[in-house]
Amino acid sequence: MSITILGTIQRRDIGMGAWALVSEEGVTYEIFKGADAALLHPELKARVTGQIREDVMTMAMIGPVLEVESFEIMDSD
After folding, report:
1. Is 5 helix (H, G, I), strand (E, B) or coil?
2. Is the separation of the CB atoms in 64 and 55 below 8 Å?
3. Of 1, 2, 19, 57, which one has the fewest beta carbons inside 10 Å?
4. Which residues contact 15 (CB under 8 A, 6 or more apart)?
């Protein structure tokens, strides 16, 4: 089942580094490898749709792993 999250992209300096999406509610999701490079910019606000991957473990372990299916970059106004 897909979920849609509105939040801010962050780069975390854990291990080799990890990308995160922090929701407006304060929940941190780790962005799964292979996400579109256009999404991976610190402080970018985006609406992201994807799947939570409970079958994947990561080195960073900063939150649920989110495999991005699609995204929309939001205006920064």
Report:
1. strand
2. no
3. 1
4. 59, 60
- Which residues constitute the domain of residue 69? 3-73
CA distance from start to end of the chain: 31
pLDDT band at 77 (very low <50, low <70, confident <90, very high): low
Instruction: Evaluate whether 74 touches 46 at the Cβ level (below 8 Å).
Output: yes
d(C-alpha 47, C-alpha 58), whole Å:
23
**Secondary structure letter of residue 58 according to DSSP:** -
Asked if 7 and 23 count as a contact pair (C-beta separation under 8 A), the reply is yes
E strands in the chain: 3-12, 18-23, 28-31, 45-52, 65-73
25: domain CATH number is 2.40.50.430
Structural domain total, the chain: 1
